[in-house]
Structures are given as structure tokens and as C-alpha cells.
Write a structure and sequence with these properties.
With about 375 residues, the protein is an alpha/beta fold. It has 14 helices and 16 strands. Helix content is about 35%, strand content about 25%.
Amino acid sequence: MPLAEVIRQRIRDEGPLPFATYAKLALYHPEFGYYARADQRSGRAGDFFTSVDLGPLFGEMLAVQCAEMWRHLGTEHFDLVEAGAGSGRLSRDLLDAAACHDRVFYEAVNLHLVERSPAASAAQAKTLAHHKARLVSTGPALPPRETISGALLANELLDALPPHVLMMTDDGLHEVYVDSDASGALVERLGPLSSPRVQAHIDEWKIVLQPGWRVEIAPDAVDWVRQAVDSMQCGFLILIDYGHEANELYSPSHATGTLATYSQHRVETTTTAGAQPWLISPGSRDITAHVDLTAVRKTAESAGAITLGILDQTYFLLGLGAAERADTQTDANEIQNIRRRLAMKSLLIPGGLGSTQKVMIFAKHVGTPALSGLSYQIRTT
């Protein structure tokens, strides 16, 4: 049964679905969801690019930062938890670099992968075959409360958690629902707020909208951050994602929202005549919305973490010595060395991944150590 028909049946049974419910089905339905049906969705053959798709350099730089974190902790072992790990490519790149350049740190790593997609999880053993001894666990949920001593890393996870979509009209605040019209096409409808949880999120973060504004909120992202901090006994939380502070996210500059869908490296962010792009062929395309960095930061702090820094990926990588590493000759193949320099340029260049990706680092029960990746302190564009 195609996912569109599964959704239409839910609508017949329950009535119009809040957009967050629709997005959860489109992305994470266990059989037909976008992330459930393949072990990898990014890269040249996928629908979008991430920093990991540019080669091993991103993982190499994170290995430098994690090794420094381990030495600040002073523990025998270092729990490295990657949430939203997919097939494990980022952890593989990180461990490859550590094994080559910092063997003592490598031997201290206990790797835990968190991934809800069965297809992606099934690919992890092959991806990490050379690091079998370092892989301690893999599963769909974060580790239990206060069990992590090390670092919890999430790269482009929060923006993929299903958002509620809100719209302010002259009649007041409404939520966007997904319905089926007489022809069976999926369409948007406005309705009342779907739950007290949505209103509580609006109240807690003091979100004020003007008539005509359409925005997204993600209570699931806030809950995830709280759970992530709770799962840490001591160590660091590293979040890398698209996002804005609340005063920018909920402002005239984003009055049409940040909801986007990706398919075959094409991004659509506005409605098209007759249909919204995110309602076309559910399960076949990614759906994302930018992260409220203010809510993430304050939630982490209220859960017991200290904000060490929030900055553009460019400055994070430069602080770790990215410019110098890009010029390192890896082998006698000049073409490979050129590709390496071009990959680092893509990671750093403003207007691309360098400025659109924000790096947020929090600490719990480790004080406020000076980290190389935060040499530029709080610096975002």
C-alpha cells in the first residue's frame, strides 16, 4: 500500500492530520517512510548534500575536537554517541582519523550509534567493519539517563524532527492540517491548535506572530535536547544543524516559514500552484524546517548544561585547524589532493555549509574548558 493511501486512510479514520503527524508518517513510517526505505539519503545519488558527503575531512576535524574533549575529561574511556547516525559514515570517518593520527584516543572510544531507520542500522556493521572493536551498541533510542561520559553528537538531526506548522490570520492563530480533497489529493487546511502541548510551546518560548505569518515549531526538538542532556553523566553535547535565534526565526525575514522539501537535489520552499511540494509523493522526499537555536540553548541550560559556544561551521572548523589540514598532502595522487582542498572549501565557504550550518556545544559537569573548535567564541551570520 503506498504511503499516500496509508495517510488517506488515517484521514478517513481520524479526520485531518496535524502537519507534524503527517511529516512523521512521511519521514519515519516503518515501511514506507523516507528514512526507513534506504540506508543513505544524501550524497550524489541521494536528494541532498551534507558535510559528510564531501569526504572524510569533516569527520577528521570532529576527531580532533573529540580527542581534545576526552583529554579535558581525563577519563579512561570516552563514550562517543552519534544520534541520527544513519549508516555510520560520520563515525567511521572520525574513527579512521583517530586511528591514524591519535591512536591513544582511538583506543579509548566506546562508540554508540542511535538510529531509528532499520535500513540504515543494518548498514552500520559493514560501514564500521574496521572499527568493530570500538562499536559498543546500536539502537533506536538515546542511552539511559546519566550513562554517557564523553560526547553526544548529532549532525543534522533536529531539523528533521516533524514540525507543527502555524499560521496567524486576522481571526487568530491556527495550525496547518493535512486533509484529502474529493479527488484524493492531499491538501492543507487550517484548524485549531492540535494539542495543549503546542500552546504550551508557544507560551514557553513567547512566540508572537503577526497576521499573515506562517512558521514552524518543533516541541519534539526541545524534548530531544532535554533527553540528550539527561542522558549525559558528564561530557559534551555537540549539535550541528540549520537554524536561527528566535528573534530572527519568528520575524518578517522568515514570515513565510522555513519548511522545505528536498528531492533529487532540488529544494522547494514555497507552495506551487495547486499543491504544496511537501505533500507530493509522501515518503519519496525529505521534509525539514530550521531549528530554533534559542529554544535549544535555553532547554539545554535548563536541563543542567552550560553553553560553551554557538558559531558558524566555518569558524568551528577554522578553530580546529581546517585551513592547514586542507593543504596536507595525503598521497601521491594530485587529483585526490585537489579534491581534498575543494572539499574543505565547500565546508568553509560562506553562503554554503560554512555559514548555514550552526555548531552548538554544551558541557555538563566538566566546567567550561577552552576548546579549539570554539576559538572564535560565539560568532554566527
